[in-house]
């Protein structure tokens, strides 16, 4: 298999893509392209920081490019610079709905949107060096209002990597990190009343996302501290097994609707990073993974100007047409790419 880049778009993030909608962003502008309605959402100014927002490199350094956007019925839910917004398409109205405590943004793809896009869950993701308490938020009205569904006590974890809906068990899986004793998976009902704690806090349970299958749940470790592996757990016994090793920590994964699974390793710093590339890995059976593309880091200091990361857009896509976006990747930094996968001998 090999990756084909069909088209490059000058958008820093591709948030969502399906046949009839494409949602992208640059700095503090969100661009929505629909079959019968295109519009742009201008987010609030960054004050004096807006000067730094004029340049890609300074946006990287100050993380001014980062935001999250998910479509809901009649609008969008947006997270940027520690604030959560709801945008109403009909009224063309942007309202702030929440202030975050410990973070500017959450990881991409990490917001659970269920029940016809009415119910949403997400947890705070940030540096949290003081190990303050970390909340999980829930909305029951398309992101117009929020409540605290659960709180990790102070000192328990650094942050939350994501909240994900398991359609097989009708549960929310909440993933946490990052260091010894902080890596857990909570499997709970939607009220966070009945909670099963999976994992012992070690790096094996450090993950950013999961694949839900009928009999198993799969994740790929997000550890720069040790070699990251594909891990899967038996639903009935809760016994875990270790699969293939990866060339680096995996932040983002993607299930395509025609049987392909994608995973992108990040170019970070640490023993778990095996070479100088960010890798795109592909599987058709969640057993064997093939390394089909290697992205070069662009060489700017990683601690200040970001690790090399490849992300995927949410939404229903297939191997003939899917979107990825990159940070600190040579030739593609701050760009979105429309891609396809070509099998040996053709698709």
Integer-rounded radius of gyration? 19 Å
Proportion of beta-strand residues = over 45%
What is the CATH H-level superfamily? YVTN repeat-like/Quinoprotein amine dehydrogenase
Highest-level CATH class: Mainly Beta
What structural class should be given to the helix and strand makeup? Answer: mainly beta
Major sheet: size, sense and barrel closure?
4 strands, antiparallel
Number of helices: 2
Total tally of structural domains: 1
Question: What is the string of SSEs from the N terminus onward?
Answer: EEEEEHEEEEEEEEEEEEEEEEEEEEHEEE
Compact summary:
The chain has 347 residues and is mainly beta.
Give me the secondary-structure topology.
Blueprint: E1 2-9, E2 13-18, E3 21-26, E4 29-34, E5 38-42, H1 56-62, E6 68-72, E7 75-80, E8 83-88, E9 93-99, E10 112-114, E11 119-123, E12 134-139, E13 147-152, E14 159-166, E15 171-177, E16 183-188, E17 195-201, E18 211-212, E19 216-220, E20 229-234, E21 240-245, E22 250-255, E23 261-265, E24 277-283, E25 289-296, H2 302-305, E26 309-312, E27 322-327, E28 336-342
């Amino acid at each position: 298999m090999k990756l084909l880049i069909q088209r490059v778009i000058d958008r820093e993030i591709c948030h969502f893509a399906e046949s009839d909608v494409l949602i992208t962003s640059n700095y503090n502008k969100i661009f929505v392209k629909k079959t019968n309605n295109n519009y742009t959402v201008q987010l609030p100014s960054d004050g004096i920081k807006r000067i730094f927002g004029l340049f890609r490199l300074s946006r990287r350094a100050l993380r001014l490019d980062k935001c999250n956007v998910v479509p809901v019925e009649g609008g969008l839910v947006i997270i940027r610079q520690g604030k959560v917004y709801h945008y109403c398409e009909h009224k063309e109205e942007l309202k702030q709905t929440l202030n975050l405590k410990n973070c500017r943004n959450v990881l991409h793809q990490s917001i659970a949107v269920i029940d016809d896009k009415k119910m949403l869950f997400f947890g705070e993701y940030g540096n949290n060096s003081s190990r303050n308490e970390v909340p999980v938020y829930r909305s029951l009205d398309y992101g117009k209002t929020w409540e605290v569904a659960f709180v990790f006590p102070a000192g328990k974890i650094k942050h939350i990597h994501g909240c994900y809906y398991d359609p097989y068990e009708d549960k929310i899986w909440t993933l946490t990190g990052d260091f010894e004793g902080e890596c857990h998976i909570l499997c709970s009902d939607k009220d966070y009343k009945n909670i099963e704690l999976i994992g012992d806090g070690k790096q094996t349970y450090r993950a950013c996302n999961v694949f839900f299958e009928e009999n198993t749940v799969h994740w790929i470790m997000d550890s720069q501290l040790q070699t990251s592996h594909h891990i899967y757990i038996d639903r009935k016994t809760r016994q875990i097994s270790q699969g293939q090793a990866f060339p680096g920590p995996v932040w983002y994964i993607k299930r395509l609707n025609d049987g392909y699974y994608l995973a992108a390793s990040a170019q970070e710093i640490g023993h778990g990073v095996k070479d100088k590339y960010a890798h795109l890995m592909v599987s058709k059976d969640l057993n064997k993974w093939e390394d089909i593309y290697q992205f070069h880091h662009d060489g700017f200091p990683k601690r200040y100007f970001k690790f090399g990361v490849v992300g995927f857009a949410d939404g229903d896509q297939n191997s003939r047409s899917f979107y990825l976006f990159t940070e600190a990747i040579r030739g593609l930094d701050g760009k979105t790419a429309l891609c396809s996968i070509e099998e040996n001998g053709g698709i």
